[in-house]
Structure formats: C-alpha cells, structure tokens
Write a structure and sequence with these properties.
This protein has 71 residues and is an alpha+beta fold. It is built from two helices and two strands, in the order H-E-E-H. The protein has helices at residues 19-41, 56-70, and strands at residues 45-49, 52-55. The radius of gyration is 15 Å and the shape is elongated.
C-alpha cells in the first residue's frame, strides 16, 4: 500500500528539498518498510544469476522503488 506522504525536512537547506530528492527519499522509505517486514518474517534466498543471490524482499523493494519513481 502506497502512501502519498511528502517528506520535507525543515532543517535541510532549500536546495536539498528538491522534488527529485523527495521522490528518492519516499522510495527508500517505502522499500525499507518492505525489507524490514521480510527481515522479521523471513524470506527465501535464490539465485538471480550465477553468484548473485536475490530474495523476495529484494525483488519487492525494487518493484516498489520503480513504481514510486514512475509516478
């Protein structure tokens, strides 16, 4: 479930309160919640390519980030 929360830190200089930075922070925050959920519940590890491990947490967090960036 996506929220439309706008992350603006009043202590940051206005040059850092940039719309693209806001999208990046929101994406990181939402993906972090997904990864934390998998951390507590557990996940299955599989290989994406040789020597490249991936979990459902990785895949779902990546999809979340991509969806937010596309908005």
């Amino acid at each position: 479930h996506m929220t439309s929360t706008v992350f603006r830190d009043p202590d940051l200089p206005s040059t850092l309160n940039h719309p693209q930075l806001n999208v990046a922070v929101k994406a990181a925050h939402e993906a972090g919640k997904i990864v934390a959920d998998y951390f507590y519940k557990g996940t299955t590890i599989r290989t994406k390519e040789s020597f490249n491990l991936v979990t459902d947490a990785d895949v779902n967090a990546e999809h979340c980030i991509a969806e937010i960036v596309r908005q």
